[in-house]
Design brief:
Blueprint: E1 3-7, E2 19-25, E3 29-33, E4 36-42, H1 48-66, E5 70-74
Parallel strand pairs: 1-5, 2-4, 2-5
Antiparallel strand pairs: 3-4
Length: 75
């Protein structure tokens, strides 16, 4: 089962832990890295809050598939 943890900064992610991060940014996108995946949602758009919530659910499904224990949602 994947945990969802809300954080205020990516710096709050524990060192060495694999994760999926959902965060606001300038544009929508996905980026794989050595510790997992980062999903970025464009901020400032009318539907950005709904898109963020949908991305968190998508991140949870991805984490489950890849055996990653934690999704971090950075608001």
């Amino acid at each position: 089962m994947t945990d969802i943890k809300y954080i205020s900064s990516p710096a709050d992610i524990p060192a060495g832990e694999n994760y999926v991060l959902v965060a606001y940014g300038y544009e929508n996108g996905n980026a794989r890295h050595t510790r997992g995946l980062t999903i970025t949602i464009a901020s400032g758009k009318p539907d950005s809050e709904l898109a963020f919530l949908a991305a968190v659910e998508s991140a949870k499904a991805t984490a489950d598939e890849e055996g990653i224990a934690t999704v971090f949602a950075c608001k």
